[in-house]
Each structure stands twice: as structure tokens, then as C-alpha cells.
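Problem: given the chain below (113 residues), write out its structure.
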Amino acid sequence: MKLYGIKTCGSVRKAIKFFKDNEIEFELVDFKKTTVGETEITRWLKKAPIEKLFNNRGTKYRTLKLKELNLDDDGKKEWLIKENMLIKRPVIEYDDEIIVAFDEEFYKATFLR
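Solution.
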């Protein structure tokens, strides 16, 4: 299982704590050290809608003034590739699925079977 995000993100920290508390092994891929490219993002978008992956509430979205661009799905994908900080976090690759964001109840149902 891979967990993508940044260590300073509150949701990522909650996910890491959940996995550690439940002794679930994972590999952390830190966006600040490892860029996620077109291959991964295209693969993710086959399993999760762009609305789920694209963070239009974060600081980076506001800083880049992307709301003014009125991006379509292709434009959002281009920005996700260009600027990984626009990816909603965490993204978890698990069992050939993509799980986006932290939801403790969903995590319990999914990972503690």
C-alpha cells in the first residue's frame, strides 16, 4: 500500500497515525520529495473522479488564482500534473483501488476487515 501526500498535512498525519496505531504497513510517498507525474495521475483518474482528486479549497489553488481560469477536467488534470500540491490528500493506492482523503470510519471498514 502506498500513501501519497505531505507530512505537514493534517489529513495525511491522521492517516499515518491510523495505520501506525493499527499496525498496517504502508509506504509514504512525499509530494515534496517525489513528484507524481502524468502516469500516476492518469491511472488515478481511471479509478477516481477529477472532483475527488483536485483540491479546489487549498492554499495553492487560491494562490495560483485557478478559480479565475474556470478549468475544465482536462485543465484540472494538467494542473495536477504540474503542481502536486493541488492533489487532495492523502491518496492511497490499495488493492487496485484509489482512496482519497481521510475518513476514519471508511478506513476502519476498509483496512480493519
